[in-house]
Write a structure and sequence with these properties.
Order of helices and strands: HEHEHEHEHEHEHEHEEHHEH
Strand content: 15-25%
CATH topology of the largest domain: D-Maltodextrin-Binding Protein, domain 2
Shape: globular
Number of domains: 2
Helix content: 40-55%
Structural class: alpha/beta
Radius of gyration: 22 Å
CATH class of the largest domain: Alpha Beta
Mean pLDDT: 91
Number of strands: 10
Oligomer: single chain
CATH superfamily of the largest domain: Bordetella uptake gene, domain 1
Largest sheet: 10 strands, mixed
């Protein structure tokens, strides 16, 4: 070995040692969970529950940073530009899978700018109806819609949202003509559903369940592959004659690409351990969420399949961003 090669080898060894030492001390300051949705959203509720347990485990504060705006893309861009040191954990959602196709120009790339950690939880959508509609199940809805093409409507929280595109997937799967009414957020859509101006809506089970239990809305189906534990009497879309139909909301943890491998592995190990805690599963399950905590490879594959699924819905429906 030449002197030049020896110096290079020593330098490389020292670099690896210093990196290992720094990573071994991780975290030695507060860690931030960042996402593009407001306080009290499903993402926020789950992040706060998980963040507290991570804080206990790491002996460091885990703070929550809500950066809503542009359909979740503002927070996504900020997370993608954060230092790749493990101190910013991004909670991506189904909105990222939709945005990857819906928007032709984004200031970040969901697949290239982030390293996947784990799928945290999924939450099914529920197809609900105003109690005044003349049908009580999915078959009745489809029959009524086909007998009255274009006369039945469904609301959503906006063009390109998961509850809008779930409706488009349903139309395509059933060959029905339903009029879409887009609102600036689901609260306004709910007001018109309660008033009878809107007949149907697909929405997150966390938001829908209180209205179902109060009798204000009639549940027709859940969009997950299995029935939801929090609404066990509501059948899935698939078991009512549309096999393979699945459209769920979800939350997954990622970090900026370039984050050291040792830190990525530690975050994965500790986050999955938290997600396996009975109290976390019980707490999140009560709201309708299905806690996951899978491998990094499984979550990476999930991201790719979700982008493909929603891309088809966008293409088939001709959806364009507002």
């Amino acid at each position: 070995m030449t002197l030049k090669q020896l110096i290079a080898a020593v330098a490389a060894t020292l670099l690896v040692s210093s990196q290992a030492a720094a990573q071994g001390q991780w975290p030695n300051k507060p860690v931030k969970i960042l996402f593009g949705f407001p306080a009290a959203s499903a993402t926020d509720v789950i992040a706060r529950a998980v963040g507290q347990k991570l804080s206990d485990r790491w002996g460091q504060p885990v703070t929550i940073e809500n950066r809503p705006g542009a359909g979740g893309n503002l927070g996504s861009e900020l997370a993608a530009r954060a230092p790749a040191d493990g101190y910013t954990i991004f909670f991506g959602t189904v909105a990222n899978a939709i945005s990857a196709t819906l928007y032709t120009k984004l200031n970040y790339d969901y697949l290239k700018d982030f390293t996947p950690i784990t799928l945290v939880a999924t939450t099914p959508l529920v197809l609900v109806a105003n109690p005044g509609v003349p049908f009580k199940d999915l078959k009745g809805l489809i029959d009524h819609a086909k007998a009255n093409p274009g006369k039945l409507n469904f609301g959503s929280g906006g063009i390109g949202t998961s509850n809008h595109l779930a409706g488009e997937m349903f139309k395509s799967s059933t060959g029905t003509q339903l009029e879409h009414i887009a609102y600036k957020g689901t609260p306004a859509a709910y007001n018109d559903m309660f008033g009878g101006q809107v007949a149907l809506m697909f929405d997150n089970i966390v938001a829908v369940t209180p209205h179902v239990k109060s009798g204000k809305l009639r549940p027709l189906a859940v969009t997950s592959a299995q029935r939801a534990a929090s609404l066990p009497d509501v059948p899935t879309v698939a078991e009512q004659g549309l096999p393979g139909f699945e459209a769920v909301s979800w939350i997954g943890a990622l970090v900026p690409v370039g984050t050291p491998q040792a830190i990525v592995e530690k975050i994965h190990t500790d986050l999955v351990a938290v997600l396996r805690m009975p109290e976390i599963r019980e707490r999140l399950g009560a709201s309708g969420a299905v806690v996951v905590g899978n491998s990094r490879e499984e979550f990476a594959a999930w991201n790719r399949s979700e982008i493909a699924k929603w891309a088809k819905a966008i293409k088939d429906s001709g959806t364009k961003p507002e």
